[in-house]
Specification:
With 756 residues, this protein is α/β, with parallel strands linked by helices. A hairpin with a 2-residue loop joins β1 (34-35) and β2 (38-39). Among the domains are: 138-354, Spore Coat Polysaccharide Biosynthesis Protein SpsA, Chain A, CATH 3.90.550.10; 456-749, Spore Coat Polysaccharide Biosynthesis Protein SpsA, Chain A. α1 (2-32) packs antiparallel against α2, α4 (146-163) runs parallel beside α5 (176-189) and α10 (312-327) packs across α11 (334-344). The protein contains 25 helices and 25 strands. Its main location: Golgi. Residues 59-69 have a biased composition (Basic and acidic residues). It comes from Centropus bengalensis (lesser coucal). In the N-terminal section; belongs to the glycosyltransferase 8 family. In the C-terminal section; belongs to the glycosyltransferase 49 family.
Length: 756
């Protein structure tokens, strides 16, 4: 590196010589051609030997200057030739397909500086470095396990995507939970020039389970030690990040630091900014061995190829075994072992400037890492307190974090122009489907919504449920938006069984929901509720997509297809399980109908029995659902018969029938063409009938619709004529599709529609 820098300095000096010497010469000549403030011509043609001011001395001076000028020009010619030769011989410093970027500040690889913990060597050694190639892929590895870490990863990825200008390849070491969540998220996110690979963290447990660890990250906090074995053997280098990291700059700047590694340096780390490894935090505090203040492993640059050649696996294992004989366990997971290895082998580490890992745990020296906002590169929330950590500028850092937390992820679907990307089958199919639509069609937006891919985050909160072993378990399925959030607690009080909910929210609303749920004792006490966030996109409420998402992610053999503004009767969960056995739902295609009622009162004394409900019907406190505005929707339930029924009874399908039913989990999905208000449930019940489901009304079950303000979509339906025209068109197309799919038997749906 030193030789390269000296060569550059010589090159710069020579260049300055070429530029300035001729300029100075001409200034000198020009100044010398004036006498008494008047110009004197140097041209022989213009000289006037007969002038009294023209003397032999002036002639000699002029000739002398002309000779000197020719000498300088000859020297410049020789210098240019030498510079040309030097440039043609200068070596290229690219390492394979990994190139470099500029960095305003530089860390130090000097071992003496490392021992002293000095970060003062951050100034650039040789000025601006070569730029990262435009389309070079940057590799990032993250260990992620569980529901909370999966949410944290999204915020980290958002901050990286916001600043990035290069293709990215994320290597996610994930458990089964995180893989399910993040695989669906990235598949539906469809960010160009981003590749995701998963590695089974559970398979790696045996590699590190022998190490006792007190850190809150558990066994997954040790898995960065085995990345040389886990990641592909042809991967030469990777940036390793904790999930509680936020980027404030382009990650390519960090990727570029790899080119500054010298000799046997294979680890890029920032010095630990707390006093942990100094051993003076409390009496008898005994940390693992470390070099000076030690290093923080929230951000690591790994030269994988060199680490493998050095037999990194043996190196860290031997060190860990030796230290555990006296330390008994790790306190800071992998960080303790990394530091113990570095203590014995200080030549392995390249110290990064501390702004690449500004550590916001309590009592750190993080404030010494920046003087201005522009100095910040990476923020690390490495305290169990996270956003509640003590720091003089914590409000600024918190706002930066919240910016990405609530940032609309759809805006990060930016193309990297000029960079070829791998063919994405989902994206290509979407473009093909959209290209087949007529943009001049007045119902184009309705048709487009059917193909829109909505970013989806499954299991936004912790979920833990094991279905009953008797194979009768049933999940309540519903969907909602932010304006129905207040119904959640009431539903949880009425239904003790598992629930699957799809929530249609923006990124900011998702965080509001998270705060609401975490502040609710009722919701936090329930671990059998799956909350699946479908992020907002487009102008319509994708009601049937939401239902399909909630249906798809149930773990029970049966589901109760409900709506969020209905409260089931107390004890309905157990009643349905008994009915499933009684009616042999496992071996028959039945749809069990739960009769629907409604109240116009916001404060209702909920009926605790069928007899009490019938009394309230007679008193006018309750009504059959939508009897006054949409009688056809539930009339086939035959409420008159239900009043006296004591056993289940069968009813026939009729036009516009849309009851709430219990079915097996293998029932058909809802048709996505129906969005917003109108025909979304009607079409589904019609398809159940076409597939020969038998509709059976349960005599002792009921649900009650609670009043609320009209939704935005029903308002559009009522006020917008074109909305109603498009809905009618979609209905006709659906019926035609039914006829093609189910043949002659489906003709009754066309007839029924014409007669209704």
């Amino acid at each position: 590196m030193l030789g390269i820098c000296r060569g550059r300095r010589k090159f710069l000096a020579a260049s300055l010589t070429v530029l300035f010497v001729p300029a100075i010469t001409w200034i000198y000549l020009f100044a010398g051609s004036f006498e008494d403030g008047k110009p004197v011509s140097l041209s022989p043609l213009e000289s006037q030997p007969h002038s009294p001011r023209y003397t032999a001395s002036s002639q000699r001076d002029r000739e002398s200057l002309e000779v000197r000028m020719r000498e300088v020009e000859e020297e410049n010619r020789v210098l240019r030739k030498q510079l040309s030769l030097a440039q043609s011989r200068s070596p290229s410093h690219h390492r394979g397909n990994h190139s470099k970027t500029y960095s305003m500040e530089e860390g130090t690889g000097d071992s003496e500086s490392l021992r002293a913990g000095i970060v003062a060597g951050n100034s650039s050694e040789c000025g601006q470095q070569p730029a990262v190639e435009k389309c070079e892929t940057i590799h990032v590895a993250i260990v992620c396990a569980g529901y909370n870490a999966s949410r944290d990863v999204v915020t980290l990825v958002k901050s990286v995507l916001f600043h990035r200008r290069n293709p990215l390849h994320f290597h996610l070491i994930a458990d089964a939970i995180a893989k399910q969540i993040l695989a669906t998220l990235f598949q539906t996110w469809m960010v160009p020039a981003v590749r995701i690979d998963f590695y089974d963290a559970d398979e790696l447990k045996s590699e590190v389970s022998w190490i006792p660890n007190k850190h809150y990250s558990g066994i997954y906090g040790l898995m960065k030690l085995v990345l040389t074995k886990t990641l592909p053997s042809n991967l030469e280098r990777v940036i390793v990040l904790d999930t509680d990291i936020t980027f404030a700059t382009d990650i390519a700047e960090l990727w570029a630091v790899f080119h500054k590694f010298k000799g046997q340096q294979v680890l890029g780390l920032v010095e630990n900014q707390s006093d942990w490894y100094l051993g003076n935090l409390w009496k008898n505090h005994r940390p693992w061995p470390a070099l000076g203040r030690g290093y923080n492993t929230g951000v690591i640059l790994l030269l994988l190829d060199k680490l493998r050649k050095m037999k990194w696996e043996q190196m860290w294992r031997l060190t860990a075994e030796r230290e555990l004989m006296s330390m008994l366990s790790t306190s800071l997971a992998d960080q303790d072992i990394f530091n113990a290895v570095i203590k014995q082998n200080p030549f392995l580490v390249y110290q990064l400037p501390c702004f690449w890992n500004v550590q916001l745990s309590d009592h750190t020296r993080s404030e010494q890492c920046y003087r201005d906002v522009s100095d910040l590169k990476v923020i690390h929330w490495n305290s169990p307190k996270k956003l509640r950590v003590k720091n003089k500028h914590v409000e600024f850092f918190r706002n930066l974090y919240l910016t990405f937390l609530e940032y609309d992820g759809n805006l990060l679907r930016r193309e990297l122009f000029g960079c070829p990307s791998e063919a994405d089958v989902n994206s290509e199919n979407l473009q093909k489907q959209l290209s087949e639509l007529d943009e001049d069609d007045l119902c184009y937006e309705f048709r487009r919504e059917r193909f829109t891919v909505h970013r989806t985050h499954l299991y936004f909160l912790h979920y833990e449920y094991e279905p009953a072993s008797d194979n009768t378990d049933v999940t309540l399925v519903a969907q909602l938006s932010m304006d129905r959030l207040q119904m959640l607690e009431a539903i949880c009080k009425h239904w003790e069984g598992p629930i699957s909910l799809a929530l249609y929210l923006s990124d900011a609303e998702a965080q509001q929901f998270l705060r609401y749920a975490q502040g609710s004792e009722v919701l936090m006490s329930r671990h059998n509720v799956g909350y699946h966030i479908v992020y907002k996109e487009g102008q319509f409420y994708p009601v049937n997509l939401l239902r399909n998402v909630a249906m798809k992610h149930i773990s029970t053999p049966y589901m109760f297809l409900s709506d969020i503004d209905f409260l089931p009767m107390y004890g309905l969960y157990e009643y349905l399980r008994k009915s499933i056995i009684q009616l042999d739902l496992a071996n028959s295609k039945k749809a069990l109908i739960v009769p629907a009622f409604e109240t116009l009162r916001y404060r209702l004394s909920f009926p605790k029995s069928k007899a009490e409900l019938l009394s309230m019907l007679d008193m006018g406190t309750l009504f059959t659902f939508r009897y006054h505005v949409w009688t056809k929707g539930h009339a086939p339930t035959n409420f008159a018969k239900w009043r006296t029924a004591t056993t289940p009874y069968r009813v026939e399908w009729e036009a516009d029938f849309e009851p709430y039913v219990v079915v097996r989990k293998d029932c058909p999905e809802y048709d996505r063409r129906f969005v917003g208000f109108g025909w979304n449930k009607v079409a589904h019940i019609m398809e159940l009938d076409a597939q020969e489901y038998e509709f059976t009304v349960l005599p002792n079950a009921y649900m009650i619709h609670m009043p609320h303000a009209p939704s935005f979509d029903i308002t559009k339906f009522r006020s917008n004529k074109q909305y109603r025209i498009c809905l009618k068109t979609l209905k006709e197309e659906f019926q035609q599709d039914m006829s093609r799919h189910y043949g002659f038997a489906a003709l009754k749906y066309l007839t029924a529609e014409n007669n209704s």
